[in-house]
DNA sequence: ATGAGATGTTCTGAAAATCAGACCATCTAG
DNA sequence: CTAGATGGTCTGATTTTCAGAACATCTCAT
């Protein structure tokens, strides 16, 4: 168990008011890390049409979390029309297969073909390296904590349908000079 | 009726999976969180042209970290041509001012006007709420740790010019069936 | 059953973001 | 002074994104 070594302030308590001067905001950190991640994945899946998204789709199909294209699209945050094209390409490469859901024939079940699974295995090592690179400034324990925290936060968001009310809009911005 | 067991229960049944090989994607978590963040900021800065990027630009200008547009663009991961348009808009609103750098007149120093600083202060509360919402599934201590970890990792990446060698490319992908 | 409305998927076309490259002004090095 | 590099801007083309229509299928009330 690692104690919080005093970084720059003694107050690591639950006070939400941060000094907030030095560290750039959460959005910048997320954006920077995601860009690095996507760039890395882009290399790993360079031969795949659709780039990093294809990897995400394959990975998601493998996980069996989603039962149709719409759910997959929502889960990955991409448009359903884009999902159609993406799956067209992946299916043309025999990496996934679309089968009408016997229970609801409007839906298409997306499953990984053996070839797709094999490819995913081939990619996994590269992906691991990318993740390691992205979090390279952190030690193993920190990486583990951060990764777990991120996944927990992300799962929390995706489970609770954000009711369009994350926070109030600042409406009086004095932009009219 | 879905067979899916309800995930909306108050206590998230954390299926503490085997940590080994756990590749519930870093990329997916980053993407999901960033999307939620951007959506929230979009609301907060709805009246600002350029959306969340404008906020990032204002925030960066305020921090005084970058001395010209190119550095700002690189830091924020946006194209320098886009930066031009963005600053055009912000300058038209008198939120920032561009002044030729006396030391190198090719460069433009981007500084926050008093009006810009006032606006930034108005926005800060909303931004804080968004950040809190994005990490809402985490308790205060976890949020603190994750935020610190993210910033540390992001700073590590942005400081070390990634020398185009994040990891080797997987070149034999057997896509030719 | 039957009809009305909702949902999953695909397609179309328009709006918007992205990106490469030309261009000018300015700096630095020789 | 010239040559090459760099910061900023503009232009034009490619790509992505997005809204909406179309079609098939499901659900539900009647």
UniProtKB/TrEMBL annotation, chains A, B:
Q: Name one Pfam family in it.
A: MarR_2
Listed under GO biological process in this entry are:
response to stress
- Outline the segment boundaries, as ranges, of region: Disordered: 157-177
Q: Where is the HTH marR-type domain?
A: 23-155
Picking any one GO molecular function of the record gives: DNA-binding transcription factor activity
Protein name according to UniProt: HTH marR-type domain-containing protein
**Species of provenance:** Planotetraspora thailandica
């Amino acid at each position: 168990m690692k104690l919080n070594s005093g970084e720059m302030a003694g107050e690591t308590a639950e006070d939400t008011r941060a000094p907030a001067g030095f560290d750039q905001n959460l959005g910048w950190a997320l954006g920077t890390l995601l860009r690095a991640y996507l760039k890395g994945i882009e290399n790993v899946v360079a031969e795949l049409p659709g780039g990093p998204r294809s990897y995400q789709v394959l990975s998601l199909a493998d996980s069996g979390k989603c039962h149709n294209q719409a759910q997959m699209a929502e889960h990955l945050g991409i448009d359903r029309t884009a999902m159609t094209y993406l799956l067209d390409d992946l299916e043309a490469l025999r990496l996934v297969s679309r089968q009408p859901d016997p229970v609801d024939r409007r839906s298409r079940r997306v499953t990984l073909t053996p070839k797709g699974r094999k490819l995913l295995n081939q990619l996994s090592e590269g992906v691991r390296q990318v993740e390691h690179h992205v979090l390279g400034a952190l030690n193993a324990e920190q990486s583990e904590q951060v990764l777990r925290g991120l996944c927990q936060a992300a799962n929390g968001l995706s489970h609770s349908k954000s009711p369009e009310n994350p926070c109030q809009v600042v409406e009086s911005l004095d932009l009219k000079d």
